[in-house]
């Protein structure tokens, strides 16, 4: 349940990041972007590449060694899918948290094992198949473009990568910044879902409005709407659902977007939002308009 520490309960007091897969093309490029944003990256890990440096960040052969030498306390994983399970277990064994898994294409049963093991040790997993998260003005752990964000009172929690940027940008154009922008990940099995995010944002004093960007498939949005209603959630939530035009049984974009037997459709999600008292936006630009109105109240 809620830690009572808001976002600190999610990222800890001082984030010292380790990049697993730092010497790969993706890992190296995004390490540079995160450093530019101001993220404190203390180490990288690529087996067999220990002793190198990438953008001034020391590289180690193992997570254990990297943590011992640098005091890293969180991880981001850019390791190819066949090796991601072992990489995640290594990070869990070192008790790093959060662990952000950018990798896509990890088999669902591997993710399930990762998430279940992490839960035992109270370790936060974000992803897989996620753009990561950003706390504007503080840190970025992921691959989100730096230019769409500035500090402000709106937290965005999303299952869709590109829509997240579009909505962030439309809010920013209204002169309103973000407190946290979190990509939950596009896979069917994920480590941090909408309810988890609402749970730690509940106590976050700097979050005034929350935007939930849902997608067709699964029942995460429906469950979140129930949670919102049943726990008498104290903050306004705006819901937007991508993929309104998908036919039943069709898989869209990524693994999480599968519709079957009426659940998982945009209609069913919008209906549960409305029944719970969550404001629904029908276009990304409309999200920004509702945000502005709610902040004026």
Summarize the structure.
This protein has 297 residues and is an alpha/beta fold. It has 10 helices and 14 strands.
Q: Determine the mean pLDDT.
A: 94
Which structural class fits the helix and strand makeup? alpha/beta
Order of helices and strands: HEHEEEHEHEHEEEEHEHEHEHEH
Report on the biggest sheet: 7 strands, mixed
CATH topology label of the largest domain: Rossmann fold
**CATH first level of the largest domain: which class?**
Alpha Beta
Residue stretches low in confidence (pLDDT < 50, at least 5 long) are none
* Binned strand content: 15-25%
Give a count of the beta strands, DSSP E runs of length 2 or more.
Answer: 14
Structural features:
single chain, 297 residues, alpha/beta, Rossmann fold, 2 domains, 7-stranded mixed sheet, 10 helices, 36% helix
Overview of the molecule:
- The protein has two domains: 8-126, Rossmann fold, CATH 3.40.50; 132-296, Rossmann fold (3-Layer(aba) Sandwich), CATH 3.40.50.
- It is globular, with a radius of gyration of 19 Å.
- The chain is of the alpha/beta class.
- Helix 9 (266-276) links the parallel strand 13 and strand 14 (279-281).
- It has helices at residues 8-11, 25-37, 63-70, 81-93, 108-120, 161-173, 194-201, 220-230, 266-276, 284-296; strands at residues 17-20, 41-45, 53-54, 57-60, 74-77, 99-101, 125-126, 132-135, 139-142, 151-158, 178-183, 209-215, 237-242, 279-281.
- The strands form two sheets. A seven-stranded mixed β-sheet has the order 3-4-2-1-5-6-7, with helices on both faces. It has a seven-stranded mixed β-sheet with strand order 9-8-11-10-12-13-14, sandwiched between helices.
């Amino acid at each position: 349940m809620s830690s009572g520490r808001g976002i600190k309960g999610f990222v800890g007091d001082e984030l010292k990041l380790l990049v697993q897969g730092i010497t790969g093309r993706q890992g190296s490029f995004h390490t540079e972007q995160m450093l530019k944003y101001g993220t404190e990256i203390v180490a990288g890990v690529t087996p067999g590449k220990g002793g190198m440096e990438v953008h001034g960040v020391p590289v180690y052969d193992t997570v254990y060694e990297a943590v011992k030498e640098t005091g890293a306390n969180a991880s981001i994983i850019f390791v190819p899918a066949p090796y991601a399970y072992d990489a995640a277990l290594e990070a869990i064994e070192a008790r790093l948290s959060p662990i952000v898994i950018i990798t896509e294409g990890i088999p669902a049963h591997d993710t399930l094992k990762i998430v279940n093991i992490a839960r035992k040790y109270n370790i936060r997993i974000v992803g897989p198949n996620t753009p990561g998260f950003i706390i504007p003005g503080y840190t970025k752990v992921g691959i989100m473009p730096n230019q769409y964000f500035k500090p402000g009172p709106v937290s965005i929690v999303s299952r869709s990568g590109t829509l997240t940027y579009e909505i962030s940008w439309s809010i920013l154009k209204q002169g309103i910044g973000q407190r946290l922008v979190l990509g939950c990940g596009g896979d069917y099995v994920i480590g941090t879902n909408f309810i988890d995010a609402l749970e730690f944002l509940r106590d976050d004093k700097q979050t005034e409005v929350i935007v939930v960007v849902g997608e067709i498939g699964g029942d995460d949005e429906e469950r979140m709407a129930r949670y919102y209603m049943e726990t008498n959630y104290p903050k306004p939530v705006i819901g937007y659902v991508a993929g309104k035009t998908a036919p039943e049984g069709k898989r869209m974009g990524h693994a999480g977007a599968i519709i079957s037997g009426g659940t998982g459709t945009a209609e069913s999600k919008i209906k549960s939002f409305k029944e719970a008292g969550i404001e629904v936006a029908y276009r990304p630009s409309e999200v920004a308009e509702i945000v502005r109105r709610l902040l004026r109240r």
